[in-house]
Write a structure and sequence with these properties.
Blueprint lengths: L2 H10 L3 H9 L5 H11 L5 E6 L5 H15 L4 E6 L2 H17 L1 H6 L7 H8 L3 E3 L5 E6 L17 E5 L7 H9 L8 E6 L8 H6 L5 E5 L1 H6 L5 H10 L2 H7 L15 H14 L15 E7 L8 E8 L12 E9 L4 H15 L5 E7 L4 H15 L4 E6 L15 H14 L3 E2 L4 H9 L1 E4 L5 E4 L6 H9 L13
Parallel strand pairs: 1-6, 1-7, 2-4, 2-5, 5-6, 8-11, 10-13, 11-12
Antiparallel strand pairs: 3-4, 8-9, 9-10, 14-15
Amino acid sequence: MDDKQLMEKVIREKDVKFLVRYFFKENISPLQEVLIRKIAFCEHKKLSVCAMTRWGKSYAVSRGIGLFILLNKNKKIFFLAPTNEQSLILRDYLSELVYKCPSLKEVAHLERGGDGAITKHASRSRQTFSNGCEYRVFTTHGTAEGLMGHGLGSEGGVLVLDESCLIDEEARAKINRMLGDNPEKSYVIELFNPWDRSNKSFDHYVSSDWESFHVGWREAIEDGRTTQEFVDEQRRELTSLEFEVLYESNFPSQSEDSIFDLQKINEAVERFNTDMSPFNINNMNGFGENNIIISCDVSDKGLDVSAWMIGEYIKPRGSEGEPTPFRVYEIFHEDKSENQELAGKLINLLTKYYDPKKSFVINIDCIGVGTGVVSRVREEVEKRGYQNVEVVGSHFGETPLIQPERFSNSKAMNYFRLKELIDEGLILFPNHSKLKKELISMKWGFTGASKIKIIDPIKSPDYADCLTYFVWYSTPPYSPHIA
């Protein structure tokens, strides 16, 4: 086998361990090998990378990009970060690699005139190569106006977002436009420390549309990149939050101002997957003797979505092995809803499962445009002669019926009621990515009168609100007990 055949075989088998040793004269750890392969061969359109500090994340990414340049033609690579200093970290790794790797140096357009001139040129914010590839450095600071007019182009390439948790929403919109004329040939890599869940990086990290690559301290020890002694020392030196972020490489399950604990949310979903799979809504446990619940959050003139749910409340029986009382079985939504159409959908859902021997409660958001939906559903229930159906207008702004000295309004009271149910394992619901995202984004604070209030995220939490309406406390047995 000659050199050409050997290289074709190595590339075909994606043997990055050989390629890194051949081109860069370096040895890599097993996990670095995995990450470099994902990047060099673009195995995933969207890659989310969260690794323990000092594991070698930037090193591995730069080696993956270096191989990507050698293996491709006419591709652009853009490095982006919130500040200029952060955006230069990967540039410095890659420029050093260009200088030390003969194959990269050969195809790089560098000024001649000694090592100093070459190094200076390789450290610029833009580097082009004779194979048509190039890399550029951008910052997303401020309004990220510097991103305008730049794109990966028709041949595609790679966007690398460093410290992506710190990139704001306005910059994100501009970054998405950089994918160019041919998004199918474009790839996105996000690198971050998981400080905060209320950003796009967390959404991507937990999304099935993204490939997630995670290295915590246990994996780093096994990978030979750190020691147990060093980790133990850092555990003693850092706060629990810092250690969880920097060495566990995990998003905190709950920050101080968060309402819901991510672990508890996942447990509620897991109970649904365990208890209700395979699931047929026509065979609801207790359907017929317990309260069947329909809840709805009404959209406001197309600015958000209308969401509605169906499930049941299973009355406690005082026996061992008591099932989870609140159970959400199905979740629906519509991007734009006219009041009459939405009311019709709720009536159709009621009609589908209506039985005069069963008891129904329909809790509907009655703030603003929701008032019309409540009225319409009540009219139809009365018109059709449905028995044992209660239609409740649920108003977040009202004075709470329980502990008004603690909560600023019914929204705060009912959100903390939902928190109580989730924390105590008294509710289950399907794995719905938008619902989970909204729940973990909900925060709370205090009013000037020292009462608890809810702080909504920027985008309306339609599904979280709908789940809160699902456990609305207006009539027994929904009145919660709050310690």
